[in-house]
Amino acid sequence: MGAVIDLGNCLDFQARENVALLKLAYESFEAICLKAGVELPVNKRAKNDKSSSKVLRYLDFAVISHLIKSAEKDGTTYDTVRGVFGEGAEAYPGSGILDQSHSQIAVRNPNSIKGVFRVRFPDGGRAAL
Question: What is the pTM of this model?
Answer without folding.
Answer: 0.82
